[in-house]
Amino acid sequence: MSGHLRVLLVEDDIDLATTVLDYLALENMSCDHAANGVAGFNLARANAYDVMLLDINMPRMNGLAMCRKLREEGVDTPVLMLTARDTLDDKVEGFRAGTDDYLVKPFAFAELIVRLQALSRRRSGQARLLTVGPLQMDLDQRQVRREGKALTLTPTGWQLLEKLMRHSPGVVSKSDLEQLLWPDSPPDSNAFKVHLYKLRMAVDKPFASALIHTVPGQGVRCGEAERDGEEAV
Amino acid sequence: MSGHLRVLLVEDDIDLATTVLDYLALENMSCDHAANGVAGFNLARANAYDVMLLDINMPRMNGLAMCRKLREEGVDTPVLMLTARDTLDDKVEGFRAGTDDYLVKPFAFAELIVRLQALSRRRSGQARLLTVGPLQMDLDQRQVRREGKALTLTPTGWQLLEKLMRHSPGVVSKSDLEQLLWPDSPPDSNAFKVHLYKLRMAVDKPFASALIHTVPGQGVRCGEAERDGEEAV
DNA sequence: AAACGGGTTAACGGCCGGTTAACGCTGGCG
DNA sequence: CGCCAGCGTTAACCGGCCGTTAACCCGTTT
For the residues B130-149, what does the mean pLDDT come to? Predict the structure, then answer.
């Protein structure tokens, strides 16, 4: 169920880097690698990763600075610092730079893997029962109910709804959803639109209000209707 | 800006528990406490916490089982395990139960605090916000409010405003903004001016004061009105 | 006065998103 | 063995939004 994470490793020690790459490959994770901070920064800005592994001591730009700069630019991919610095101040400094986790060298690869998975799923959720307003998805029994009534979803509809509910009330970009359905190559047709439409038919049509909303130019959101904050001043 | 987190501590060692409570109080975090797994489970299900600290060795229900049960019930609050067990297998087991982080006793309180903040930063459902004066941009729900009222932006307007708010109160050069919209080749028309104008219509027109200011010859700035004494000599 | 930087409009056209219907594959069942 | 149902895919159509463009306007500068 780890589902093919995309990882970015920024590490100047080539031996360590290749070893990590090997281990990640065993876990079915794809991993890009950069040997210095600047190269890593550019990769991180250009591609969308699920999690990043950063060394601190690196040529050209160190891991802390790189993390800080990424955060300033709005990149909020989870970051796991990999470093030999183990004093308390180092750790506090790391977290202040926007790190999510901190692992001291030398470390066990099993722990690296497991922390990495924890980081990546922290965004996608890990509960077995998802609830969004009147919608309830039971992942063990594989059934969805709205206001108590069971809904029948197609397999793809299920995939979409699960991702939407996991991110609720956040917006999920169209490209993310497409990548979910077609990991390698999104089709050139409008298949996606049709799937989404049919999901709407299943989830919203039989009821009074819609739970699936498209945010123009941004993506799709699952949640209660938008309330315009009409607060008096 | 730790902003008053609500924490649940489940720990049967009363001495340790009171010490942790004291430290959290210093950080302006409110913290409930339970001394065994069952009590903790009930608290966790009843209230909404930002993050939970669980001991593993506890009477009635251990931390791992409690975490697992919460996940089954759909509670996805971040969990930080606090335990004396430090073998690799223990850690792997902990993460498998749905833990988000794992801290081995004895630990430094500064590290506890900082990891706890990192976890809550990622709290699912908690909005990532950009705030500039009365302007508030919710990056997850992809909506912008000013004085509570929701604004409707076009996709390009959103791009511009996000960059402006990120750099606020700094000035963003016109060429930077153009490069944001057209990475390869800025158009030869005045499309940029029009986009900026429409953004102003959306952000400033319905309100008394303007938040988007052009600094002649420099670029554009997002922020409260400038006090007069600014002249650089 | 002409040139320049910036602000304000209105109109056009393409693209995005929603909606249908039809086709084809696959797996189950008689 | 053949039929049917379910599901994914595709093409086509439509409406409205939004990006683009070319105007014109203004004040300041040269």
Answer: 92
Closest CA to A84 of A9, A7, A13: A13
Which residues are bridge partners to A213 per DSSP?
A: A221
DSSP string, A58-126: -SSS-HHHHHHHHHHTT----EEEEES--SHHHHHHHHHTT-SEEEESS--HHHHHHHHHHHHHHHH--
Q: Which contiguous run of DSSP H or E holds residue A136?
A: strand A135-138
The nucleotide closest to B201 (CA, C1' atoms): C8
**CB of B158 less than 8 A from some CB of A:** yes
User: Measuring from the CA of residue B190 to each C1', which nucleotide is nearest?
Assistant: D21
Which residues does residue A126 pair with via DSSP β-bridges, in sequence order? none
CB B118 within 8 A of CB B151: no
Count CB-CB contacts under 10 A for residue A26: 10
Task: Please give the pLDDT value at position B233.
Answer: 34
Largest CA distance in chain A: 62
Task: For A6-45, write each residue's pLDDT tens digit.
Answer: 999 999 999 999 999 999 999 989 999 999 999 999 999 9
d(CA A123, CA A119): 7
Q: Which segments of chain B are extended strands (E)?
A: 6-10, 30-34, 51-55, 79-83, 101-104, 129-132, 135-138, 143-146, 149-151, 171-173, 212-215, 219-222
> Are B164 and B221 within 8 A, CB to CB?
yes
Question: Residues A168-189: pLDDT tens digits?
Answer: 889 999 999 999 999 888 888 8
| B173: phi then psi, degrees, rounded to nearest 5 | -70, 150
Contact at CB, B88 and A101, closer than 8 angstroms: no
Per-residue b/e over B83-98, b at no fewer than 16 CB within 10 Å?
Answer: bebeeeebbbbbbebb
Question: How many CB atoms are closer than 10 A to CB B178?
Answer: 16
Prediction pTM value = 0.85
Residues of A in contact with B102 (CB under 8 A): 115
